[in-house]
Amino acid sequence: MSINPHPACVVPPPETIICKYLSLDKFRGIFASEELYFRRLDKFKESDPREALASENWVRHALRLNPLDVNDEIRLNNEQAFARQNSEGYFISCWNIYDVETLEMWKAYGNCTCIFSRIELLQEQLTPILDTIVWGAVRYTERDRTGYNLIDFAFTKTYPYEHERELRILLQSYDPLYRTGRNLRIDNFAEREPIYGPNPWVPDCKRRRINLKPVVTEVRISPWLDEKTADEIRHWIHVKNYTCPVIDSHLKGPLTPTLEEFHRLR
Hints:
Shape: globular
Order of helices and strands: EHEHHEHEHEHEEEHEH
Mean pLDDT: 93
Oligomer: single chain
């Protein structure tokens, strides 16, 4: 069994409904290959600079560092850089714990389809994967941290992302020739980010094959998707012999703002 328990990872009950918003390219990719896509964890700093890092105040508190001590601040730099370099050995697949549809989520992550499943169905497909996996719901506060380690950091995000209700699958795949200390300048000053990246053979993503048919319970089409593309989605489901229903978004209606109008409103 590849799924390992961890104090930082709280998995919702088996019957919990989960979903995944997809762009058209990602929809085609997952249904053509029937593979889960895992992106390297450090790559998410492009959209969230705090990804897989504890806040500076938390690091100071956990390690009892004095912000007025220059040596402690250098250690803080090294701690943050080490966490970032360590995150290069982890890859994540992001889902969402379903509550209600929102136009914000459609705009940010989908604008094509949203596929639905349940915790128990996805878990059945994760279990045979040979890599070490931890998974669970993301927390959006540092008050509930369970320890000072990268798994805890990876499952804690900041409050502005709370509306995502993310369910995160974390796959561990270390480079055997992994090196730390890549944040040190030629004068030995410690930067907070690595100055150069991992070894060139370390991929940006990994894919793991699953049996997608028993996972997907419903496919929902974006309220902004044009009818030609919506027909393509229905065709994919038909020719691949999926039995799940394909329905329009619950937010689709005469009062729904267009995507351009929603951009202006936001």
